[in-house]
């Protein structure tokens, strides 16, 4: 079983929530407000299957999925 | 820490982008950058980006790490034509919105397509004039409420991809922003297989602030709705007229490989100089 991890670039994220809604496994969730930007940032809570939809559909180039192909 | 694949094509010092949270322009940027990455283009030295005025014209001008020209409203295509004629070695890409390319610059778009000018034009159809607070544009759907049409839009939208398919353009496609993989493959095709002549890609991406939020939806919900709303053109043609109104036809409208304007022009120059 491959292991994938989702990283959020907190400087670029604007908290639009597309990654949370597009995730087929509901692996992401909002976690508090980033005091530097004032936006809510998501974090990984569930298991990632590596479909990379959050990375493609992130309008601010803030989401990165890391793991073996 | 790992980085997003798009960041190497962006000017980091101007990030984050000036777009609204969730703006679909960023998804088009991802598709464009992934197409560059898969074609093995590491730096954009051979590319020139030309844009006009509007939200989507902001994509190349401060953000992409390449030469770019931010021109007058609607006049992106004439400037791009000049760039391409001055140095035909360059790849010229025009990125603009519907208000810029189809409304004020509509005539330039038509005649560049008629001439089969060697340009790649990406038009983001966000359905309204987003930068000036969401007034009705020629691409606004029938019945949509905007600040200039408070009782619903009485007019019907124009189908820009079909109009351009009726000219001499080489490659015409329309994709929805929710169809990321076909959009990326289409940009790849327009830069590799069909690398000459006029190539036009319309991207259907409703304005997040003045269309999506006015409908009471979040950007993510609208993306999921668009995945059902946008159908391939073959499916769309089999639908009844009522059903067609509710769906968006997407796909490749036209794909040819005729010689572009530059090639034809060079032949005429050689003839005029008496060469064979």
What name is given to the CATH topology of chain A?
A: Alpha-Beta Plaits
CATH architecture of chain A: 2-Layer Sandwich
Number of domains of chain A: 1
Give helix % range of chain B. Answer: 25-40%
Tell how many strands the DSSP assignment of chain B holds. 10
What is the succession of H and E elements of chain B? HEHEHEHHEEEHEHEHHEHHEH
Widest sheet, order of strands of chain A: 1-4
CATH top level class name of chain A: Alpha Beta
CATH architectural arrangement of chain B: 3-Layer(aba) Sandwich
Topology:
The complex is a heterodimer of chains A (69) and B (276).
Chain A: E1 4-8, H1 18-22, E2 28-33, E3 40-44, H2 53-56, E4 63-67
Antiparallel strand pairs in A: 1-4, 2-3
Chain B: H1 25-38, E1 47-51, H2 59-63, E2 67-70, H3 76-86, E3 91-97, H4 98-104, H5 106-115, E4 120-125, E5 128-129, E6 135-136, H6 160-165, E7 171-176, H7 180-191, E8 199-204, H8 208-212, H9 219-229, E9 230-232, H10 233-237, H11 241-246, E10 248-255, H12 261-272
Parallel strand pairs in B: 1-2, 1-3, 3-4, 4-8, 7-8, 9-10
Antiparallel strand pairs in B: 5-6, 7-10
3D structure, described in words:
- The complex is a heterodimer of chains A (69) and B (276).
- Chain A is built from two helices and four strands, in the order βαββαβ.
- By secondary structure, chain A is α+β, with helices and mostly antiparallel strands.
- Chain A has a single domain (4-67), classed as 2-Layer Sandwich (Alpha-Beta Plaits).
- In chain A, the strands form two sheets. Chain A has a two-stranded antiparallel sheet.
- Chain A starts with a strand and ends with a strand.
- Chain B has 276 residues and is of the alpha/beta class.
- Chain B has a single domain (20-272), classed as Rossmann fold (3-Layer(aba) Sandwich), CATH 3.40.50.970.
- Chain B contains twelve helices and ten strands.
- In chain B, the strands form two sheets. In chain B, strands 2-1-3-4-8-7-10-9 form an eight-stranded mixed β-sheet, with helices on both faces. In chain B, strands 5-6 form a two-stranded antiparallel sheet.
- In chain B, strand 5 and strand 6 form a beta hairpin.
- The longest helix of chain B is centred in the N-terminal third of the chain and has 14 residues, at 25-38.
- Chain B is globular.
- In chain B, 47% of the residues are buried.
- Classes of the chains: A alpha+beta (69), B alpha/beta (276).
